[in-house]
């Protein structure tokens, strides 16, 4: 068993329902997204709603929600509003290449 950070460490929080410790959204680490997750992130940043994204991409709303769930898990956020704040704070991908 690997010991985690101390329970009283204010930099760490327990994700609800998962029992894992995490260091907050993305925690300065590289996150590998699928093409669908990356496209969803771009569409969300462009201000599109999930139903509109589903229609434009020819996907069901449930598929788009599944991609959203994967994106939220990989970025370590619990709410879509947290995801939006995180995405808005990132530099454009073209600036990273």
Q: Which key features would you list for this structure?
A:
disordered N terminus, 4 helices, two-stranded antiparallel ribbon, mainly alpha, 97 residues, Arc Repressor Mutant, subunit A, globular
> What is the averaged pLDDT score?
77
Order of helices and strands: EEHHHH
Rough outline: globular
Q: What is the number of E strands?
A: 2
Characterization of the model:
With 97 residues, this protein is mainly alpha-helical. The chain has a domain at 30-89: Winged helix-like DNA-binding domain superfamily/Winged helix DNA-binding domain (Arc Repressor Mutant, subunit A, Orthogonal Bundle), CATH 1.10.10.10. The protein contains 4 helices and 2 strands, in the order E-E-H-H-H-H. The chain has helices at residues 35-45, 50-57, 61-75, 80-89; strands at 13-14, 21-22. Helix 1 (35-45) packs across helix 3 (61-75) and helix 2 packs across helix 3. It is globular. 12% of the residues are buried.
Write the layout of secondary structure elements.
Blueprint: E1 13-14, E2 21-22, H1 35-45, H2 50-57, H3 61-75, H4 80-89
Helix pairs in contact: 1-3, 2-3
What's the quick description here?
The chain has helices spanning 35-45, 50-57, 61-75, 80-89, and strands spanning 13-14, 21-22. The chain is mainly alpha-helical and 97 residues long. The chain has a two-stranded antiparallel ribbon with strand order 1-2.
């Amino acid at each position: 068993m690997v010991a985690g950070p101390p329970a009283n460490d204010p930099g760490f929080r327990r994700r609800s329902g998962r029992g894992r410790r995490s260091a907050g959204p993305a925690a300065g680490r590289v996150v590998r997204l699928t093409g669908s997750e990356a496209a969803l992130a771009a569409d969300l940043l462009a201000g599109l709603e999930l139903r509109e994204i589903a229609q434009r991409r020819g996907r069901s709303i449930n598929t788009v929600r599944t991609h959203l769930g994967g994106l939220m898990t990989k970025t370590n956020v619990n709410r879509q509003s947290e995801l939006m704040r995180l995405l808005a704070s990132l530099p454009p991908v073209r600036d990273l290449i």
